[in-house]
TrEMBL record:
Protein name per UniProt: Co-chaperone DjlA N-terminal domain-containing protein
Ranges where the Co-chaperone DjlA N-terminal domain occurs: 2-99
CDD domains linked: terB (cd07176)
UniProt source species: Longimycelium tulufanense
Superkingdom assignment: Bacteria
Length: 120
């Protein structure tokens, strides 16, 4: 939402990832989509996340950072606002915000048919 828009590709990737990784029932999928719709309609803030993220391991924080970056590039457009938000997210995750640029570059160079941004 850093660029004031969540593209259909970004939303689809996010929902697809959550559904597949969480092994949700049909009712849980419906609630997830409703909750996501509510979150996207709300004005989201990063404030207050520090406490929630404190209990994550370095591996988990890295995964959250990489997934956030993947969502930002999935529509093929990266705005300055998205980069700024990603740098804030990396900082909140206690990761080097300068690594955002190399991660973005790596994802842009990855084949488009691989939504994870990793090379096979």
């Amino acid at each position: 939402m850093a660029d004031d828009d969540v593209s259909e590709a970004e939303r689809d990737h996010l929902v697809g990832h959550l559904e597949s990784s969480l092994h949700l029932t049909p009712g849980e999928r419906m609630r997830l989509k409703a909750h996501l719709t509510w979150l996207l309609a709300s004005e989201l803030k990063l404030a207050g996340l520090k406490k929630r993220l404190a209990g994550l391991t370095v591996e988990q924080r890295t995964h959250v950072a990489e997934f956030s970056t993947t969502i930002a590039v999935i529509d093929g457009h990266i705005s300055p606002g998205e980069v700024k938000s990603l740098r804030k997210i990396y900082t909140l995750l206690e990761l080097d915000p300068d690594t955002v640029y190399s991660r973005l570059h790596g994802l842009n160079a990855a084949p488009r048919d691989d939504p994870s941004g990793t090379r096979s």
